[in-house]
């Protein structure tokens, strides 16, 4: 079941923190970098993030996606799945849910260049590589975007 999370509640923020630490630890090992900010994020930082969180429940919180809406652009900040729930389609369902809730919006997201599973997921949903940056020397991230395209008829008006 997918539902909006109230990350301002301490209990929910703790669940988010616990899950994301496990998920981002796997990414840290994958990319060879343990400085991912979400690994050391406090409960208070999660509560005050300004993001909207959507959770996937399978008896427990098994994954979540968070974003900030900036006008017609949805900026995806996190997508995390508990390692015990990997390869069950949870990230795909969360992303599909988010895209479905904003059919007229554009999307932007970044992930580590070496995070092939995340890159493949975004590319499967039509995200295109827009650029890259280095948050730390030697650590490369890719920026993806998905822009809503208008039907040809809309240009004839």
From TrEMBL:
Transmembrane segments: none annotated. One of its GO terms (molecular function) is acyltransferase activity, transferring groups other than amino-acyl groups. GO terms for cellular component: ribosome. Residues 2-29 form a coiled coil. Keywords: Coiled coil, Ribonucleoprotein, Ribosomal protein. Residues 1-151 form the N-acetyltransferase domain. It comes from the Bacteria. This is Ribosomal protein S18 acetylase RimI-like enzyme. It comes from Planococcus koreensis. The lineage of its organism: Bacteria, Bacillati, Bacillota, Bacilli, Bacillales.
């Amino acid at each position: 079941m997918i539902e909006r999370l109230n990350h301002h509640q301490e209990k929910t923020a703790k669940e988010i923190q616990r899950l994301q630490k496990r998920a981002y630890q796997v990414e840290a090992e994958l990319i060879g970098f343990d400085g991912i900010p979400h690994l050391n994020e406090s409960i208070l930082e999660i509560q005050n993030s300004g993001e909207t969180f959507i959770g996937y429940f399978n008896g427990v919180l098994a994954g979540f996606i968070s974003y900030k809406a900036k006008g017609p652009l949805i900026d995806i900040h996190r997508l995390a799945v508990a390692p015990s729930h990997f390869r069950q389609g949870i990230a795909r369902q969360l992303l599909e849910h988010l895209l479905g809730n904003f059919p007229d919006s554009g999307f932007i997201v970044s992930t580590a260049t070496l995070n092939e599973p995340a890159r493949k997921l975004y590319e499967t949903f039509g995200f295109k590589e827009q650029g890259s940056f280095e948050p730390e020397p030697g650590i490369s991230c890719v920026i993806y975007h998905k822009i809503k395209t208008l039907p040809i008829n809309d240009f004839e008006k």
